[in-house]
Task: structure prediction
Amino acid sequence: SSGINAEYGGSASEKFYLDKVGPNGLVWCPVYKGASSSTNSHFCPLFYGESTCAKPSAALWRKPNFRGSLAPKGTPTLLIVRHPFERLFSAYRDKIQAPPNGNGFIDAAMRKAAFPNRFIAPELIAKRQSLINSAVAIAAKQMKEHPVERGQYVYMKGQSNPYLNPLSATFEEFIRAILMGAMDNEHWKQVGRYCAPCSEYYDYILKVENYQCEFPQFLKTLGSTESLLNRINLEKRINVNKGRSATDRTDFYEYYALLPDNLLDAIYQWYKADCDLFDYNCEKTICEIREWRRAHLS
Result:
């Protein structure tokens, strides 16, 4: 619509030119928490050896020689999208709930999400800043010495500091910080803003939910040779950020069902353009969350 075009104008924040993908190369705008790691793992062996591709530093978007501006005019373009509510949930579980120490997310989650939104007893308000400083130091040490599996809350037993129980931000605190504009990050930024599909044309738009089917078909449509497909090694690499099945959504519902209705509606409004642009029925998702809440939490 004209409203979406006006709001989501401009150019893509990031695009990468991959000259060895297909006969004419490829320009890709990676949507973080939208199969970007999977797609990178497929493309990486075309440019580097297996030992290099096994390292986190092998992400193609960290290499200046892949800038999208280097692509010849007419190079095919790729965008991979994901249901906004699923993408936001995945970002929280992976980056915020129990983030590894040293990646910058633990400090941001605590200072920008947990601290402004967490209730503390009136008698602790005067000590708020010292409690915050102490919590950040303890959290960083905890995550370094005792890393936990992603998607788990961390509670510090014997600690009276309210900012340590749970450590990092709760899902609601995280959502509130995003909606207040306190945590702007590419891992949950609207795709319409990040990749600018209203002003920049994409030849191929795939969905994470259908990635295992659509990605191999996309490569064949692109004109990839058998040799190139073997190097990409689809069978070995399709295992990251898969869209969850309709029957495997308990954790998704558990987290969203704890949010108040006005916050669910606010998330929908924040992502509404993405829902509309990429044909995701986000209103139905909210209805399903509320139905799950009535059935399991009432």
Notes: Confidence is low (pLDDT under 50) at residues 1-6, 239-247. The CA atoms of residues 111 and 132 lie 8 Å apart.
